[in-house]
Amino acid sequence: MMEETKLTCFQRRYLMDCMKRGDTLPLQCYPTSCKKPAPAAPAFSPAVCQPSRLSAKPHLRPAKVCQAGDAYTREKFKPQARRDLEKEKQRLQNILATGKDVVECNVRQTLVRTKEEEIPEPDRFEELVNEVQERKEFLAEMEALGQGKKYQSIVLTEISQKMREMEIIDKKRSEEMREIMTKDFPSGKSFFP
């Protein structure tokens, strides 16, 4: 990585020395001088700044330093939405009168009904069409990767099975339609030959 960044020999030596000592790497490495740049003025007061090297003894911060931070500030109280007391009274009356929470039962039943009504039963014929399309796409991908011969017989067999199942479903539907159409005509003659 040093070779890619085109560092000078001095910069490489300086960085390797920093790594050996375990120091942090400098943000800027001056190319020709061994002088370290003057440290910038600290953002905090000297009492707040921690020494860069940790000694063997743990240091405890004084109380003034802890209080100077945001650790002791309290969050302001933000009231939340209150309960509807009339609704709660009505609910309690229902529980005491009937022994059940009638309102909740009605809500649950309506939610279950709406969920059942929203989910239509999947059509098997449509599922088969999607599966055939997926297999065709898979085979095209394998052919593009050069693995088409390996999977071609397997995928074509699966596609033919799906097509056969689609034909069976189609025959059943056409027979059902024929029966419906013959029932509609009172003479018993079918619309179909």
UniProtKB/TrEMBL annotation:
InterPro entries, from UniProt? UPF0193 (IPR007914)
Name-wise, this protein is EVG1 protein
Organism the protein comes from:
Rissa tridactyla (Black-legged kittiwake)
